[in-house]
């Protein structure tokens, strides 16, 4: 192997490694933050009354945070795909077909479009972001409905 090829391979691999670790760290942080906020929402709903305002605020916050983390995940995914493309290109000069791991993985993931087939990290992450986003939106709707009915009851009691 020549020195230029080794430098290109090292550069591409480090780029891939950094952004892959970054993606996992972002997702782990998202799960931790989601757990804390969801616990707060649950406690607020359980307490009822005036805590539904806080539940509504936390639900809106969680929806915004989910959107931001989803967009961050999209960006890191793009960076990882760039590194994978570079590594695939560098692999093309390798002699044995079995050493072309990124090329093999690309071919394998192209066939994983079914619900019961293995999922990519991206699909799993998107599913999680969508699920949390939908649950946050439902909690917002629940909080608004509760607050409207709670306000009507208080108004009726005052009259």
What is this structure's SSE topology?
Layout lengths: L2 H45 L3 H41 L9 H10 L10 H38 L1
Low-confidence stretches: none
**Total strands:** 0
Q: Look at the structure and give the mean pLDDT.
A: 86
**Gyration radius, rounded:** 23 Å
Secondary structure tally, helices? 4
Number of domains: 1
Q: How are helices and strands ordered from N to C?
A: HHHH
Largest sheet geometry: none
Query: Portion of residues in helices?
Result: over 70%
Category by helix and strand content: mainly alpha
The coarse overall form would be elongated
* Binned strand content: under 5%
Distance between the termini: 87 Å
Written description of the protein model:
- The protein is mainly alpha-helical and 159 residues long.
- Helix content is 84%, strand content 0%.
- Helix 1 runs antiparallel to helix 2 (51-91), helix 1 (3-47) packs parallel to helix 4 (121-158) and helix 2 packs antiparallel against helix 4.
- It is elongated.
- The relative contact order is 0.12.
Quick description:
With 159 residues, this protein is an all-alpha fold. The chain has helices spanning 3-47, 51-91, 101-110, 121-158. It starts with a helix and ends with a helix.
Question: What labels describe this entry?
Answer:
mainly alpha; elongated
